[in-house]
Amino acid sequence: MSKTVVVKIGGHLLYEIAQEKLQIRRIADYAEVFKHATGKKTSLIIVVGGGAPARTYIDAARNLGASEALCDQIGILATRLNAWLMIVALGEHAYPHVPSNLQELLNAISSGRVVVMGGLQPGQSTDAVAAIAAELSGARLMVKATDVDGIYTADPKTNPEAEKIEEASYEEILEVLWRGRIEAGKYALLDPVALRILERSRIPLRVIDGTNPQNLAKALAGQPIGTLVRPDREA
After folding, report:
1. Ranges 69-73, 133-137, 231-235: which has the least confidence
2. Which helix H or strand E contains 179, and what residues bound it?
3. For 147-170, how does the pLDDT look when each residue is reduced to its tens digit (9 = 90+)?
4. Strands, DSSP E only, in 174-230?
């Protein structure tokens, strides 16, 4: 019986802001990693964020007078467009539909193919979607691919004193969040709601640098890369 791994890919990894274009080569490279990782021993669920295009449409809608709920819905549509690109790159390895609710997700999981999805509902981050997918599928691991090589005590891009956390429990990471050492909205690497979902189901989380697709291959192979967030050993 195969074991499920959920991979969350930050939307910012799929779009080069400076060049204002999609990272087609990187999407193709991710797809190759996923093709090689899936099989009899591993089932994959991929959750893709919206990135810069989503923010562009959300800002435009807000300036035109859209409600925040509608802005969220527009952002969700952008994440699903990104999911479709990954499905195209995966070809026959992918389930040929982007789930838009939990029942569709369950149906997709039963197909045995790689499932790719974006957001589900307003007010819910794609991190939380990935955590819910991990819980629903009984995943053994969730991998979050971002543009830093793990979790730090502050934003390493702006704070030279930020220290990398190699391994910690969910409670320890949440304590760092609540103390304000990682500022909400400024160092938006972690969604506390997603962490709580993973914690209650005791699903480990590995946060890695996804700018190099081979880091995903290493994480899926069980190599110690990035930051590991684990359930409390005493729970």
Report:
1. 231-235
2. helix 170-179
3. 989 988 877 877 888 888 999 999
4. 205-209, 227-230
